[in-house]
């Protein structure tokens, strides 16, 4: 289990800038387990401040908890005093000499005591500008943060100095977490667990991916066994409906109408549910390179793996028939990795561009016309260039490479690329290959 802290230089830079620009109100948010708390504690190493983890309890209990957190930094703070608002409390915190206050999981506090927002508005409007304080509000409930903290009409709307949405890590940092794995194993692990630091720290790279799946997800008492259900229950009021939608997408229903049909909900309702899933980063809508008919994908890798593979063996795992369950997981894994690898390649586009494997592009997307499909197409209408990319989760021999390139050339002509662009290039991204300049693999990228 690795405890490394990697690839958050941008976020740390924003926090450092907010510290220099005091007074400041900073909002930090992102999905559960993505590393928000670790980021804030890393920043606080060089700054003396107060850290408080909010609880799902009433307003008074959270106020007392914050007083206790301040008391650990300022001896005797709040002794014999009972605060009734966070406004009054934070005014006294500033008077005690504290210049940094971090309130983590703030969305829990908001959920049980919405009044905390109007009290904070009073503090931010009337008192914070006269201080040198940096106040950080952090939360995992993305919907609550965007609606009740950042959204228009919210008491703190327009008052934040900085905001940071902490995203999952990208594939190229996995070697920091999994040094014993090779590039192919790291990419496969990313396709299952995504770039969520907490999950990656649980992976044991002295055993293979399948054994980690069994140990971390499948067996009774596994640390991530109920993770997806927990995320849905925390984020949404009716998690079962969202679960049906995600299950429908994983089964191959990717258009709005088909998702609504398979999930058993009205089409008009499905639009709202899908918008909510997109807002929290669980789902994404992919528009084709040309055309309006978009499709939906499960963007969260761990959630995608759960609904694509783990859900299919749920009955076996509930009966503790782990050997049978893992046989099914092993059989399903190659097909899942083949589909997920397309998403991984999208995430790899920045490094592919930096290494010169792909053209500078202004648009990217899948192309589908009358049954002819291109996994990924990049276009630069300014320079008149285009590039067609085939994604293969397999080991390619030279004859496979030659056949793939010919197929791409035929597709380029059929789809009109050769007429529309003055220069059309081709690339194959494969799991492994015998070696060809038209092919790039995880090993070539040093993943």
Give structural notes:
The radius of gyration is 25 Å and the shape is globular. It is built from 20 helices and twelve strands. The longest helix has about 35 residues, at about 320-355. Helix 1 (about 10-20) packs across helix 2, helix 4 packs parallel to helix 6 (about 115-125) and helix 9 (about 185-195) crosses helix 18 (about 320-355). The chain has about 450 residues and is of the alpha/beta class.
**Total domain count:** 3
The percentage helix is 40-55%
Model regions low in confidence, pLDDT < 50 over at least 5 residues: none
Rounded to the nearest angstrom, the radius of gyration is 25 Å
> Which CATH class of the largest domain applies here?
Mainly Alpha
Class by helix and strand content?
A: alpha/beta
Strand content: 15-25%
Overall 3D form: globular
Strand tally is: 12
User: Whole-Å distance between the termini?
Assistant: 19 Å
Number of helices: 20
Q: Please tell me the CATH architecture of the largest domain by its name.
A: Orthogonal Bundle
The CATH superfamily of the largest domain appears as Winged helix-like DNA-binding domain superfamily/Winged helix DNA-binding domain
Side by side, the strands of the main sheet go 2-3-4-1-5
CATH topological fold name of the largest domain: Arc Repressor Mutant, subunit A
The biggest beta sheet reads:
5 strands, parallel
Mean residue pLDDT: 93
């Amino acid at each position: 289990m690795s405890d490394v802290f990697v690839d958050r230089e941008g976020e740390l830079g924003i926090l450092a800038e907010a510290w220099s620009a005091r007074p400041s109100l900073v909002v930090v948010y992102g999905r559960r387990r993505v590393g928000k708390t670790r980021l804030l504690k890393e920043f606080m190493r060089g700054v003396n401040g107060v850290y408080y983890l909010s609880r799902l309890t009433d307003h008074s209990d959270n106020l007392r908890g914050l007083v206790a957190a301040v008391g650990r930094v300022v001896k005797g703070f709040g002794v014999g005093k009972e605060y009734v608002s966070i406004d009054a409390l934070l005014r006294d915190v500033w008077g005690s000499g504290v210049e940094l206050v971090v309130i983590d999981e703030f969305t829990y506090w908001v959920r049980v005591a919405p009044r905390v927002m109007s009290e904070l508005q009073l503090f931010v409007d009337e008192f914070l500008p006269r201080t040198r304080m940096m106040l950080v509000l952090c939360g995992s409930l993305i919907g609550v943060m965007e609606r009740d903290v950042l959204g228009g009409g919210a008491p703190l709307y327009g008052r934040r100095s900085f905001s940071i949405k902490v995203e999952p890590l990208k594939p190229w940092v996995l070697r920091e977490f999994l040094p014993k794995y090779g590039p192919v194993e790291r990419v496969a692990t990313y396709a299952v667990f995504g770039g969520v630091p907490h999950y990656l720290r649980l992976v044991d790279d002295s055993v293979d991916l399948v054994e980690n799946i069994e140990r971390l997800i499948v067996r009774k008492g596994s640390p991530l066994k109920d993770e997806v259900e927990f995320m849905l229950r925390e984020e949404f009021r009716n998690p079962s409906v969202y679960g049906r939608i995600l299950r429908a997408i994983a089964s191959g229903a990717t258009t709005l109408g088909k998702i609504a049909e398979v999930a058993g909900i009205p089409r008009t309702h499905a639009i709202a549910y899908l918008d909510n899933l997109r807002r929290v980063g669980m789902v994404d809508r992919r528009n084709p390179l040309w055309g309006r008919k978009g499709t939906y994908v499960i963007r969260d890798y761990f959630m995608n793996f759960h609904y694509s593979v783990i859900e299919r063996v749920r009955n076996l795992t509930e009966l503790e028939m782990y050997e049978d369950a893992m046989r099914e997981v092993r059989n399903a894994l190659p097909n899942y990795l083949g589909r997920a690898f397309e998403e991984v390649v999208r995430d790899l586009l920045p490094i592919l561009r930096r290494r010169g494997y792909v053209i500078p592009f202004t648009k990217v997307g899948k192309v589908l016309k009358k049954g002819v499909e291109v996994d990924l197409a990049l276009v630069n209408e300014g320079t008149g260039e285009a590039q067609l990319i085939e994604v293969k989760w397999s080991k390619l021999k030279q004859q496979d490479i030659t056949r793939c390139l010919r197929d791409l050339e035929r597709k380029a002509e059929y789809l009109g690329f050769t007429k529309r662009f003055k220069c059309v290039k081709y690339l194959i991204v494969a799991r492994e290959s015998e070696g060809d300049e038209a092919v790039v693999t995880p090993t070539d990228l040093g993943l």
